[in-house]
UniProtKB/TrEMBL annotation:
Protein's recorded name: Glucose receptor Git3 N-terminal domain-containing protein
Keywords associated with the record: Membrane, Transmembrane, Transmembrane helix
Gene Ontology biological process terms in this record: adenylate cyclase-activating G protein-coupled receptor signaling pathway
Organism: Rhodotorula paludigena
Gene Ontology terms for molecular function: G protein-coupled receptor activity
GO cellular component: a single term: plasma membrane
Amino acid sequence: MSRAPTPTWAEGVGVTVSALSVIGGAGIAVGWWFAPQRSHLRQKLVLGLGVTDFVQAVTTLIGAALDAAGQPYETNSPSCTASGFVCAWEPRRDELSRANADLLADQTCVLTNACWTLVIAIVTYTTLVYPFSRFTALLETRAAFPVIAALVVFIGITPSIPVTILYDMTNATGLCWLKPGTRSADLMLFVPRAATLSVVVILYVRLFWFFRRRDINIDTVTDPDEQETEIAGGKRLSLASLSTRLSPWHRRSSDTLHHPPPHNPRSSSLAPIPGSPVTFSQPFDPAASRGSKVDPKQSTIPPPAPDPRTVSRDHSTTVFEPTKSTMPAGVAPLTSFPDSRQHSVSVSFTGVEPPRSNSTASSIDPAQSHPSPHPPPTSPASGRSKRFSSVGWPGRLSFTATGERKRKRPLTPRQISKRLSLLMAVYPVAYSCLVAVSIARLIKQLSTGEAAAPGLAWTSRFLITSQGAIDGLLFVVVQSSFKRWMKREQG
């Protein structure tokens, strides 16, 4: 069987590219074995792609090496039989049986490579756009990869069998294929590659608009349970959380400063103490315990004289009515505390204790000066006031808020899956770039019916045979990027 002469440089480039593809496909398999995330579906899909690249690269390497050595495939040779496993399917003349076997291997690799790329693109799209759909949940099961692998192999082998039986094959510089220039040969390459390229472009355009329209990033939590967890964790020491907790204190302060407190009957008079020689008969002035504005005209009135009935014969203990301090007319009520405890007088058997000064009263915790009949407990309020007074809580809140923004939380498994899916998206992009030249060449041949230029034909062939090398390089880049990414996020 005659064959077209092959330039020397083309033979050398073909052997080199095929060898690099073999190394790349084997590297993917070895790297997957040592990868910590090898149980993930994305890693298994890349493994299937690497195995396909390896088989295709071995087939092209053997054919290119034999062609470069001047010893092309011989009819029914062991190498030909090893490269094709369905020789018995075509019992025609010996020259075609060898080509049919090699065709089945090449055609199967073309279809399975396209299928693996398409599956990776679909899984990436569904994981990022529909992370909680039923289809995405099925992809996370253990039976997902065996089912996908069986479908890919079935789609790759089934069309190759009738093509091998019905069409004649020729040797094309180490590769056995349909006769060059025929419409059948062009369609067998154009249909799977064009369909895969179209689906990848559509899915990635929709993915781009999805992120742009929703203004979200890869770490956005869309699960309601995870969202509640993150919100609760974020408000644990945040400024908004402490502001919410301090709102009752602000309301109490506002009521104390701007609203008169309710009348407390316990502050109107003092009940006599059983068994005590001291008699409390002079009630306190109810107006003194109210939050009314101080009249400057009444501030100069001297205190009334003590009631002589309050003086005991055995003990000279006197009870005085609380006096009103002099206050200018322009002073706002912010400087006065109308609490009854400010005007209270302590009674003892040795004399009258002086009332507490304004500075002492102003240092009282606002939580303790509650004007309601049922003030809060003393110990929690005093503990809270001591904590905020001893430590400058505005600065602490600012520091806490700043630290909260800088603190890194561990990524959830779903966020890790999203990041890995985003990195896996480079494989369909690389496939689309490699087959774009081949699709352009096939479109020209189908539309004009003429053979493509030699330069375009060789470029298309070298790009296709370099898929294993490109995928192996991308595997190294993806794994190293993912490790650096996770190490940076985990601190």
